[in-house]
Amino acid sequence: MKTSVPEDFDASADVVAIGASAGGVDALFTVLTGLRKPLRGSVIMVLHLPQDFPSRLAEVFSARLALQVEEAQPGAPVAPGKLYFAAPGYHLLVENDRTFALSCDPPVLFSRPSIDVLMESCADVYGRALAGVVLTGANEDGARGLAAVAARGGITAVQDPAEAVYPTMPRAAVAAARPDYVLPLAGLARLVQTVLR
């Protein structure tokens, strides 16, 4: 596990899958703010929210980022250069034809959408062309998903638990996946920018 991004780091990814829970909004802004057009790939995000409230994440993030941000829609293709959020109340998956699908299967670790479900489906589809990132959170969702990314040869990164507002999620991800990188948010921002440019 590396604690900084090497100067000569030049890996790339078609998709960056990011999971966050408690404390995740501010963490996501820090990681994503530096992204600029054009991007070679896309970002797909699960942020745990109450299931019975409509999400305004795409609207809020669109206002502060220089990229198009959308809520992922079933059947829509995963398009490069875009940032997607999972809708509350549904698991978000990517199908083999690289389109989105939604599922009403039971919550995973009390969460729907589940970070594990998203990352596992992305790992199956993208393999080495995937980067998985787990941020702050108060449960262990994302640990199994990040391990799936690692098993398929994707890039794996976790927010440094010592920096996270809620360290339970990143600690679980470190233990389960032995990620390539354990980084502060600034380092994760650089990693994401590098793999997508």
Describe, in plain words, how this protein is organized in 3D.
With 197 residues, this protein is an alpha/beta fold. It has one domain (15-196): 3-Layer(aba) Sandwich (Rossmann fold), CATH 3.40.50. It is built from six helices and nine strands; from the N terminus they run βαβαββββαβαβαβα. Strand 1, helix 1 and strand 2 (42-47) form a beta-alpha-beta unit. Helix 3 runs parallel beside helix 4. The mean pLDDT is 94.
Architecture blueprint of SSEs:
Elements: E1 15-20, H1 24-32, E2 42-47, H2 57-64, E3 68-71, E4 82-85, E5 91-94, E6 100-103, H3 115-126, E7 130-134, H4 143-151, E8 155-159, H5 168-177, E9 181-183, H6 185-196
Parallel strand pairs: 1-2, 1-7, 2-4, 3-4, 7-8, 8-9
Antiparallel strand pairs: 5-6
Helix pairs in contact: 1-6, 3-4, 4-5
CATH architecture: 3-Layer(aba) Sandwich
Query: What is the helix content?
Result: 25-40%
Detail the poorly predicted runs: none
Order of helical and strand elements: EHEHEEEEHEHEHEH
Oligomer state equals single chain
Specify Rg, calculated over alpha carbons. Answer: 15 Å
DSSP summary: helix tally: 6
Strand content: 15-25%
By helix and strand content, what is the structural category? alpha/beta
CATH level-4 homologous superfamily? Methylesterase CheB, C-terminal domain
Number of strands: 9
- Write the CATH fold name: Rossmann fold
**Physical arrangement of strands within the biggest beta sheet:** 3-4-2-1-7-8-9
Average pLDDT rating? 94
